[in-house]
Design a protein that fits this description.
binds 2-amino-2-deoxy-6-O-phosphono-alpha-D-glucopyranose, three-stranded antiparallel β-sheet, 17% strand, alpha/beta
Length: 227
Amino acid sequence: MHIETYDQLSEQVATLVAQQIATEPDCCLGLPTGQTPIGTYKLLSTWSREGRLNWSKVRCFALDDYLDVPPALSFHTFLSEHLYQHTNIDAGNIFHPGMTDNYDALIEGQGGLAMTVLGIGGNGHIAFNEPGTQFLSWTHCTWLDDSTRKANQASFGASRPPQKAVTMGVKTILSSRRIVLMASGEKKKAIVEAAFRGPVSRQVPASYLQEHEGLEVLTDFGFSLTR
Ligand code: GLP
């Protein structure tokens, strides 16, 4: 499918997730937050309400979350509102990195990630793996870059965005059998090209994905990559 618009991008990613669930009804999914996946979640929610998707055995893992924020502003709540509450997912199959001290063991114990959907931050972060994050990184707490806090300011109104977060690490994400990275808008074109046409570099954590055999990069600005 040639993708030219955000709606087409959202539909393509939602279709990949729906196909993954249909193929492997008890799969483990890694799920992102932010503005980019909202259209995807809207479609998945609609299809779920129409009974076209069965989440009863699916296990969902949030990529990351803020630390020290009111529950209403957490990524766990974001995913509940944008997706989980519109599906028949079992509450016991919803996981997030703030719920345990060993998220990686939890993921491994559930069978590992079958598919992880990612966005990309303006500074090349994936989940909250900020520039400088080592390749050999597992789930960890991190200080957020100023640019990341600025980019997420809208979610916090007049309050200052959090300084700290907990995130799946680079190795946690790379352990996923399939990775679908989605990016929307000309503003993300340069960082996507740097990540996938430039060198693998700690300064652009998304570039670590270049080596992943099950990678798909989908955008609405003419860049795509399938490995
Ligand atoms: C946040 C999230 C990332 C997300 C990024 C981009 O930092 N931790 O998972 O990919 O923002 O967000 P957006 O899609 O709003 O540009």
